[in-house]
Amino acid sequence: MFIFGLATFAYGACDETGRRLAAVQLVRTRVATSAEVASAFGVSGVTLWTWRRDYTCSGVAGLVRARTGPKGPIKLTPGLAARIVALDAAG
């Protein structure tokens, strides 16, 4: 990312934490407004506000995406697995 012709931020295409950090720092350094940053990064103002809050409370660690999906053991019994396979085979 270039600001006033200078390379200021760089993050990989899959680096969600780096992307969030760049967005937060653009607003914190007053290079751009919250609305401009939210629009440029394709997020809502609420999302950007959440990132700023998380960064203020926990630093970069607050910007790391939490684990998604089930957080506990799966509840797939052998009987249910067999039924799923049978239904899949039937279309």
Verbal overview:
The protein is mostly helical and 91 residues long. It has one domain. It is 53% helix and 4% strand. The protein contains four helices and two strands; from the N terminus they run ββαααα. A two-stranded antiparallel ribbon has the order 1-2. Helix 1 crosses helix 3 and helix 2 crosses helix 3. The longest helix has 14 residues. It is elongated and about 60 Å long. The mean pLDDT is 90.
Which labels suit this protein?
91 residues; mainly alpha; two-stranded antiparallel ribbon; 4 helices; 2 strands; elongated
Give the helix/strand layout:
Layout: E1 2-3, E2 6-7, H1 16-28, H2 34-41, H3 45-58, H4 78-90
Antiparallel strand pairs: 1-2
- Order of strands across the main sheet: 1-2
SSE order, one letter for each helix or strand: EEHHHH
Tell me the major beta sheet: 2 strands, antiparallel
Shape: elongated
Q: Helix fraction?
A: 40-55%
- Judged by helices, strands and strand pairing, the structural class is mainly alpha
Mean of residue pLDDT?
90
Rg, nearest Å: 20 Å
Strand-residue proportion: under 5%
Ranges with pLDDT <50 over ≥5 residues?
none
- Discrete helix count: 4
Q: Please tally the β strands and state the result.
A: 2
State the separation between the terminal residues, measured CA to CA. Answer: 48 Å
Count the domains. 1
